[in-house]
């Protein structure tokens, strides 16, 4: 688009606010709007896209909820410069709404988590490893006392994810972990058993020692166990 305009015109008149949203998103994706840029006024945007101001206003509200845009009192609307820790991740909502299949969930987790755990092995710092070990120790304590649950387990995997130090991997991985947390009612929590804690210690030690073979083995065991728990069985008592 080289005619000086930022937004593509909206041709289809159905669900105008959604089409306006897509036009704004396209401008961001294609670099016509960059993080920190101020958007034109509502009237100018409406004229450029050939829609009413109310459609533009509604689209902006939706993008503000997703923390893509932000309104600054008395200054206008801007493209956000970054995501806050509590920003909504629409990918996680889309994934959670997919009808759950144990086979598909296990395949998805095995493919993605194996990849980001290998990246964590490559990029983890000494501080990362110390934090990971602390989480493992807490998990071991819980399994010996009141018992840990799947949320405790996900704290460990979230730590591994952060150790990648890759914002793209972290953002998509956070969505993936939210999907797995949504399976907690199906899993029924974790057994009061040290087997799961042992596996997580082995994952930590494999990452620390850069032992690829050991990491692959323990991850495979962990994924198999999680799949069986999804099916309502107890992997560590079988």
TrEMBL record:
SMART domains (UniProt xref): FCD (SM00895), HTH_GNTR (SM00345)
Gene3D superfamilies found in the cross-reference section: GntR ligand-binding domain-like, Winged helix-like DNA-binding domain superfamily/Winged helix DNA-binding domain
Bilayer-crossing regions: none
InterPro entries attached to this UniProt entry: GntR_C (IPR011711), TF_FadR/GntR_C (IPR008920), Tscrpt_reg_HTH_GntR (IPR000524), WH-like_DNA-bd_sf (IPR036388), WH_DNA-bd_sf (IPR036390)
One annotated GO molecular function: DNA-binding transcription factor activity
The HTH gntR-type domain, residue ranges: 14-82
Alphabetical keyword list: DNA-binding, Transcription, Transcription regulation
Pfam families named among the record's database cross-references: FCD (PF07729), GntR (PF00392)
Protein name: HTH gntR-type domain-containing protein
Species: Hungatella hathewayi WAL-18680
